[in-house]
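We close this part of the discussion by returning to an individual protein. In the encoding step, the backbone of a single protein was reduced to a row of integers, each denoting a local shape. The sequence in question and its structure tokens are set out directly beneath this paragraph.
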Amino acid sequence: MVQGVLQTMTTNNAQIRPSWRRSLAALFAISLGLLTALLSPKAEARPETIMLYGDSLTAAHGLSRNEGYPALIQQKIEAAGLASDYVVQASAISGETSAGGLNRIKWSLAGLERSQQKLGVFMLALGANDGLRGQSINAMKANLQGILDLVKEKHPDARLIVAGMFMPPNMGDDYRARFSATFDELAEANHATLIPFLLEGVAGNRELNLPDGIHPNAKGQQVIADNLWVILEPMLEEPVMLQP
């Protein structure tokens, strides 16, 4: 009988020992994994994109790319020590209307997704060509709202800026008033920061414009960059409020 008991105990111990070995091995593997994770350098975070979405004014028509206000804003970001946090992307086509911008926005946002970039700030700077061509203000507003809707859908945490535009006197008082009011309405409806007039301090000044009298020269682009930076800098330095 004693021999049977001893044999049973020996058998049980033989069964227990492998179980303990497996448990210890699993615990060691987990500990090693945690230690490796703690000691390994963290992956460097990608800077968030500031997309300036516009037409020839944003594309620096008639100038080198480095002279345009998007490039100047990038310089200001670097000077402020924010280059590791933000990078400027000018997504602009000369002559583009709000309809063209609506057709293009999916492609522009898809580019961010392909490169795994987060959209931190989106500035909408379209509508000038609609106005100069006397196109429907209601249609323009619907197009611009469509752009903002898609941006909010794909990047709900992105901060929004709406850059407004004024029309010249020859467009008529009623058209001019309704045109400029559209940007106010869009900014309010989308909780966006409003720039009432993108060309503030530049329009009408020969020293700040190309010979065509419409597009800013290098000095004019600098004024636009300075005006935008007043709005953009505090926005970049404040903590992001995530959408629920």
